[in-house]
Amino acid sequence: MTEPRVRRAIVDDAGAIAVVHHAAWVKTYSDLLPADHWESDTVAHRTERWHDRLSGDASGRPLVAVVDGQVVGFAKSGATRGKDGIPAVRGYELWSLYVLPEHHGAGVGALLIDAALPAQRSAELWVAEANPRARRFYEKHGFVVDGARFTDDLEIVEIRMVRGR
Fold first, then answer.
1. What is the DSSP track for 93-152?
2. Are 29 and 81 contacting, i.e. CB atoms less than 8 angstroms apart?
3. Region of 115 on the Ramachandran plot (φ > 0 left; ψ -120 to 50 alpha; else beta)
4. Nearest in space to 120 (alpha carbons), one of 135, 142, 98
5. Torsion-angle region of residue 68: left (phi > 0), alpha (psi -120 to 50) or beta?
6. Is the pLDDT score of 11 beyond 90?
7. Distance in angstroms (rounded) separating the CA atoms of residues 72 and 79
8. Which of 27-36, 39-48, 119-128 has the highest mean pLDDT?
9. What is the pLDDT of residues 33-63, one digit of tens each?
């Protein structure tokens, strides 16, 4: 297996990103979501959505981690969006970071977060409260829980983590 490398996503990555996104969601959220959620949340549906997202401005595309020619993870960051009336506390946000479960612990996530959010960058992110693995990962990268909470439209409680000032 070659070392992972990071590059900007291209339109042709839509299906591979959808596989990563879906696999990570199944691994992380299967116990938190009703079984019927997965009837509409499919790889095909996510592929369509990612194709649409990737067809726009290239500067807004996520970063992908590639190992042996296969997309194994992705990350997206940008200006802070805020959540349901909760004001942003940092100017930059990690919007998403997902890695295929079989690549957890192999440095792919660290490579992506370092590319999406250089260590000196002040930032915030939202993470499922019931996802201790992700919370530990973000803590390892300098983030701390700041007390803000939000329940999303799927009834998943998210907490905000921040880094820097």
1. EEEEEEE-GGGTTTTHHHHHHHHHS-TT--EEEEEETT-HHHHHHHHHTT-EEEEEEEE-
2. no
3. alpha
4. 142
5. left
6. yes
7. 25
8. 39-48
9. 888 889 999 999 999 999 999 998 777 789 9
